[in-house]
Specification:
The chain has six helices and ten strands; from the N terminus they run E-E-E-H-E-H-E-H-E-E-E-H-E-H-E-H. It is of the alpha/beta class and 213 residues long. It folds into two domains: 101 residues, 2-Layer Sandwich (Nucleotidyltransferase, domain 5); 83 residues, Nucleotidyltransferase, domain 5, CATH 3.30.420. The strands form two sheets. The protein has a five-stranded mixed beta sheet with strand order 3-2-1-4-5. It has a five-stranded mixed beta sheet with strand order 8-7-6-9-10, with helices on both faces. A hairpin with a 2-residue loop joins strand 2 and strand 3. Helix 1 packs parallel to helix 2 and helix 4 packs across helix 5. It starts with a strand and ends with a helix.
């Protein structure tokens, strides 16, 4: 079975094609912007145009635009190829990537993940280092506020440095989402309901609210 993994929820623009669990093609870059223009040509350049029996996509939390781009592409390809679309969370994937180095370092404290959010906030979540069981629900919190409440010594993710700088102590390990790491993700994190998890309210303010009515 072929699986196409699409990850555009964060700064990374990452696509991987697996055949029976073996990686056969990929594209990975820290793009920041431009996901919408780049994604479809990248998929088209994969073997057989990236055609797969199953499509897996990062559902967030992350950037509003990045999430919409990835989910829209996954749904469209799923419809065209008659392939099921499944999803995973961005924080869960980063935790799965970080787990090996966290354990290898002998850390027995929780696995803390922080991703760059919007408006001075970070998306964050805490996992058990051994089982990856959730120790806290995903949330979006202002950096200064999170610095006062999260005292885990080492933080992983694209937002780790900002959090450690604000806190003034601890270690930051920068980890970005990478579609190639999908096999590291425990099956329990895979969802059949591919809906966006924005993690915070929309940036736009409804016209009625702007007018106070």
């Amino acid at each position: 079975m072929r699986q196409l993994v699409i990850d555009t929820a964060t700064e990374a623009l990452s696509v991987a094609l697996f055949d029976e669990g073996a990686l056969i093609a990929h594209h990975h870059e820290i793009a920041g912007r431009g996901h919408a223009e780049k994604l479809i040509p990248i998929i088209a350049a994969l073997p057989d145009g990236g055609r797969a029996d199953e499509i897996i996509v990062d559902q967030g939390p992350g950037s509003f635009t990045g999430l919409r781009v990835g989910l829209a592409a996954a749904r469209a390809l799923g419809y065209a190829w008659n392939a099921p679309v499944k999803a995973y969370g961005s924080l869960s994937l980063i935790a799965a990537i970080a787990q090996e180095s966290h354990m290898a370092a002998g850390h027995d404290f929780p696995l803390a993940i922080a991703l760059t959010g919007g408006h001075g906030e970070l998306f964050w979540q805490v996992f058990d280092p051994c089982s990856l069981e959730l120790k806290a629900a995903p949330a979006s919190t202002p950096i200064a506020e999170l610095a006062n409440k999260m005292d885990v010594a080492t933080v992983y993710g694209s937002g780790a440095a900002a959090l450690i700088d604000a806190r003034g102590h601890g270690d930051a390990v920068i980890v970005h989402a990478d579609a190639r790491a999908f096999p590291m993700l425990p099956v329990k994190f895979l969802q059949t309901d591919a809906v966006p998890l924005y993690g915070r309210g929309a940036d736009a303010v409804p016209l009625a609210a702007q007018k106070g009515g």
